[in-house]
Amino acid sequence: MADRTVIARCRRCGAEEEIPAWNIINAQENPELRAELLEGKLFLWTCPRCGADNLIKYPLLYHDPAQKLLLWLTDGVPEVEARMAETIASEEGLQDYSARIVDTPGEMMEKIKIAEAGLDDVAMEICKYVTAQEMGKTDADFKFFRLEGADRRILLTYPESGEMQVVGTGFSVYEDAAGIVGRNPELAVHGLVRVNAAWLAGHIR
Ligand SMILES: [Zn+2]
């Protein structure tokens, strides 16, 4: 059962409906919610009046004990983020977790995919940065999609002209990025933080 409800409002016709919402999703205890999240269905609400699909975002903590992953989907209130960071820092047993603030459901899905592929999100940000530079698409919003094939080709998606494009890059690009992360203490992350393109831009010279 859902923890609570939120009021969803249709962006097309304005109809409102009270829909179930969650405070915390534990990937081990709620595997069906993890699946819904990864399929992009968890935050999707279809308006009963006009049939429009709406993205309904609300604050949510995602916890995967197996991956030692904690993701906080924030509504961007700094005080709430600071309180959440304090709570996580003081919680026993979370010291070796990757704890991240994400701003969108899409980012949350990406972080889960990266962790479940056994990859590191800091190295992935560098990998995406390098790929964007090579393609001359530095403004594009690249996201990790999945690994492909025996040579573990890295598939990234990015939106262009209203469609989702997929581009593949060699695993060696990721390995080089992981090497950079290992050699640079300033790329080490602690506590509940954002790790995204803007964060990386602030850390590379
Ligand atoms: Zn509607």
Throw out a few tags for this protein.
globular; alpha+beta; single chain; binds zinc ion; three-stranded antiparallel β-sheet; 11 strands; 205 residues
Radius of gyration: 18 Å
Major sheet strand order: 3-6-7-8
Principal-axis shape equals globular
Helix content: 25-40%
Spell out which ligands are present. Answer: zinc ion
The average pLDDT is: 94
Tell me the number of strands.
11
Identify low-pLDDT runs: none
Q: Largest sheet at a glance?
A: 4 strands, mixed
Q: Give the total of domains.
A: 2
- The N- to C-terminal Cα distance equals 48 Å
Order of helices and strands: EEEHEEEEHEHHEEEHH
Beta-strand content estimate: 25-35%
Coarse structural class: alpha+beta
Brief summary:
This protein has helices at 31-38, 78-90, 105-116, 121-135, 171-183, 197-201; strands at residues 4-9, 16-21, 24-26, 44-46, 53-55, 60-64, 69-73, 98-102, 143-148, 153-160, 163-169.
